[in-house]
Specification:
This protein has 333 residues and is of the alpha+beta class. It is built from 11 helices and 9 strands. Strands 1, 2, 3, 4, 5, 6, 7, 8 and 9 form a 9-stranded mixed sheet that branches. Helix 4 packs antiparallel against helix 5. The protein is globular.
């Protein structure tokens, strides 16, 4: 039986901020030119002798197709500033994932991803992708509505990672385009802090960064548009409580069984922990770039799914979402 190591901390991040110390920027906008290529490389590195290595390589192939789609697709038409302001008034977010009509160009990204994937997959997986490519626009839109709305009833779990991949490409391009046209001030800090300030989506995980003024600061990573936004550590990313916060991680015996020596040396198990809240029962993984500067929120979240399973056994619920690994619940709707 796997075990969990628990570490408790008593000092909030704010206490470490000295008077006059330069503050880290609130936002880190996605780097459309490299976002998915870096994810592909990380997934390939993690896949070696990993229990779910084949799936990690499949997601790496998706990431490669995502980057190729970004590089090949024509520029998106950026919404007018008046549209962004109207969205903020209506939903609190300038580019909301829910409640705002999607431009049909996201389906161009989907078809580009599917076209790239087919020749790079084995016959069974390739045939599954071909069948998905034959679906109607109405099917794609209905599935996207469910995926972005967090509705698993009626969601095609086999198609969801590919549809999610296309939506990620679309929103990364939207955010990058809007920031280029109107500046990053378009995406200000807005309540609730638990959701992406750009699109209102939940995070996949959080990252404690290294280097410059960001060193030691925790950023949440959006599951949809890859924006990262600052949230102080030792604060629940779900209910925002600062009480009853503790950290759990897989023990090193689990790491020895589940990871190769090469991966363990490059990515020690303590690089990925779960920040758990006793107030609401939720957790979100927190990744340390100091322990491993190559971490990627999506890739490392997938590679530590064993931690999710153990926390689920203890009754905890993830506050994050990873579009590359979704779970169905017949009771949802």
């Amino acid at each position: 039986m796997s075990k969990l190591e628990r570490t408790r901390f008593a000092t909030p991040e704010e206490i470490a901020v000295r008077a006059g110390e330069q503050q880290a920027p609130f936002l880190r906008l996605p780097d459309a030119a490299h976002e998915f290529a870096q994810r592909q490389a990380r997934l390939q590195a993690l896949a070696a002798r990993h229990p779910i290595g084949e799936y990690l390589l499949f997601v790496a192939a998706i990431a490669r197709a995502q980057q190729q789609a970004i590089d090949a697709l024509p520029p998106l038409d950026v919404p007018e500033a008046s549209s962004l302001r109207a969205n903020i008034e209506a939903s609190g977010r300038p580019l909301p994932a829910v409640g705002w009509p999607r431009a049909p160009q996201w389906r161009d990204a989907l078809r580009a991803i599917l076209t790239t994937l087919v020749p790079n997959l084995d016959s069974a997986a390739g045939e599954s992708v071909r069948r998905l490519a034959d679906q109607s626009d109405a099917f794609f839109e209905a599935q996207a509505d469910r995926l972005l709305g967090g509705i698993t009833l009626g969601l095609d779990l086999g198609a969801a990672p590919l549809i999610g991949a296309a939506l990620q490409v679309h929103w990364v391009r939207l955010v990058a385009g809007a920031a280029a046209c109107f500046g990053s001030s378009t995406f200000e800090r807005r309540a609730p802090e638990s959701l992406c300030p750009c699109c209102g989506t939940r995070p996949t995980a959080s990252v404690v960064r290294i280097g410059g003024v960001e060193a030691g600061y925790r950023y949440l990573h959006c599951a949809l548009c890859s924006t990262q936004w600052h949230l102080v550590r030792i604060k629940c990313s779900h209910c925002l409580s600062t009480k009853g916060i503790h950290y759990e991680a897989l023990d090193r015996a689990d790491a020895a069984r589940d990871r190769s020596e090469v991966v363990r040396e490059r990515a020690p198990v303590t690089a990925v922990r779960a920040e758990c809240c006793d107030q609401c029962g939720h957790y979100l993984k927190i990744l340390s770039m100091e322990k491993d500067p190559d971490i990627d929120p999506v890739a490392d979240d997938l590679a530590t799914v064993a931690l999710d399973l153990l926390l689920a056994e203890s009754g905890r619920t993830s506050a994050g979402v990873n579009m590359m690994l979704l779970y169905g619940d017949p009771g949802d709707g």
